[in-house]
Automatic annotation (TrEMBL):
This is Cell division protein FtsA. It is a peripheral membrane protein. Residues 7-195 form the SHS2 domain. Gene3D superfamilies: 3.30.1490.110, 3.30.420.40. It comes from Aureibaculum flavum. It holds the Pfam family SHS2_FTSA. Cell division protein that is involved in the assembly of the Z ring. May serve as a membrane anchor for the Z ring. Self-interacts. Interacts with FtsZ. It is found in: Cell membrane. It comes from the Bacteria.
Length: 436
């Protein structure tokens, strides 16, 4: 089996850890070779809080994926999330020494590297620097400045920042599980790869990924990511509330939520009742579905309102920033009955559930097209993309160098952004090695 076109996505979530091995088939679709899943024990709200348990869960998921695919896993692409993630906007500029020459990738790289040197709060590190739009000599709203003349190159950036210790802990778990970290990506970015179409990203869309411990948000407009946020609660708090409200154990609460739960209380009749076996020798408990969905409804409304606040902060109310494609819900929480209707009701925005099956080959198992696997599929896609760009970069260099025509050299920028990210990943790996 060719090593080149195989990658592994590892989603370290609060409720589950998923490892997916896959490759691109001849039609450019994702062919899943194997998948492993383990209950996640050492992660709380997207952040590792028990190293030993997390390592065990990672190993369990990886071993399962290996035995299904008969392929040894060496390196993985990992998603980073958690309540420590924040994003900010920043604009920066460089003055070019020679304005007689056209702007090329090295100028953009210099500008992006300059942003990477920003002084963060103690214990924070920049994860992504995503250029929004450029200005050349005061001329605004330029999407691709490569090939233009100008003395001053300016850009607005969306900067994603995370806690160094949390990122290091994830790296440590991967290393201790006997794996290499080939790349690290913000989870909402990975999920959006898997479930959003290019048209939606152009029109403007908010991706809401409701996980077990966190709810991630990514907003796209004009094909560019504009805003990211991580809200520190997800499906787990709903289970917690059911557990408290009905005085039952967590396992039962989780089952109740997934089997009978609904986010819309009007659906259930007063006389619909579920009987739950009592603990050792105690009477069974009777719970009305009406009450169950009231508990769920209250919590889901709270999560959605927090997310909607972030959407408003981005500026959805302004005409130019309007999200025409509305909202896409994904993650395990999107499987909750009637959640789509509730989100539409609260936000007044068009909503659909995002399934990661658009990029999967037709023969894929049904299980994987569930919204709960969106992040893992997205991470796998990121890994395959990085492998592809490594191969094409060597070819690309030969083709691109003699050309000066601006139209033809635009793709270089894309390759370059990837390479800047790879550099960051290298720096990050070095940083992990030193930390050992």
């Amino acid at each position: 089996m060719e090593e080149d076109n195989i990658a592994v996505g590892l989603d370290i979530g609060t409720t589950k850890i998923v490892a997916i091995i896959g490759k691109t088939n001849e039609y450019g679709k994702l062919e899943i070779l194997g998948m492993g899943k383990a209950k996640s024990m050492g992660v709380h709200r997207g952040v590792v809080n028990n190293i030993t348990q997390t390592i065990q869960s990672i190993q369990q998921a990886v071993e399962e994926a290996e035995s299904v695919s008969n392929h040894k896993i060496k390196d993985v692409v990992v998603g980073i999330a958690g309540q420590h993630i924040r994003s900010l906007h920043h604009s920066d500029y460089i003055t070019r020494s020679n304005s007689e020459e056209v702007i090329d990738e090295s100028d953009i790289e210099k500008l992006i590297n300059q942003v990477h040197k920003l002084v963060m709060l103690p214990g924070e590190e920049i994860i992504h620097v995503l250029p929004q739009d450029y200005k050349v000599d005061g001329q605004a709203e330029i999407k691709a400045p490569i090939g233009m003349y100008g003395a001053r190159l300016e850009a607005n950036f969306h900067v994603v920042v995370g806690q160094v210790s949390s990122i290091r802990n994830v790296g440590r778990c991967i290393k201790s599980a006997g794996l290499e970290l080939s790349n690290i990506t913000l989870e909402p970015l990975a999920s959006s790869e898997a479930v959003l179409s290019q048209e939606e990203k152009e029109a403007g869309v908010a991706l809401i990924d409701i996980g077990g411990g966190t709810t991630d948000l990514a907003i796209f407009k004009d094909g560019i990511i504009r805003h990211t946020a991580v809200i520190p609660f997800g499906g787990g708090v709903i289970t917690e509330d059911i557990k408290e409200g009905c005085s039952i154990i967590e396992k039962q609460a989780e089952l109740l939520k997934t089997k009978f739960g609904s986010a819309w209380p009007g659906e259930n009749k007063e006389n619909e009742i579920v009987s739950i076996p009592g603990l050792r020798g105690r009477e069974p408990k009777e719970i009305t579905l009406k009450n169950l969905s009231k508990i769920i409804h209250a919590r889901v409304v709270e999560i959605i309102e927090q997310v909607y606040l972030e959407v408003k902060n981005y500026g959805h109310e302004e005409t130019k920033k309007k999200l025409i494609a509305g909202i896409v819900l994904t993650g395990g929480g999107a499987e909750l009955k009637h959640i789509k209707q509730l989100v539409e009701y609260i936000t007044g925005m068009d909503t659909r559930i995002g399934y990661p099956n658009e990029h999967l080959a037709g023969s894929t198992e049904v299980d994987l097209s569930s919204p709960a696997f969106a992040t893992a599929v997205g991470l796998l896609m990121k890994g395959l993309e990085a492998k592809k760009s490594e191969i094409s970069k060597t070819k690309h260099k030969e083709v691109v160098e003699p050309q000066t025509n601006s139209k033809k050299s635009i793709p270089v920028e894309k390759v370059d952004r990837k390479s800047i990210f790879e550099k960051w990943a290298d720096k990050f790996r070095e940083f992990l090695d030193n930390a050992e």
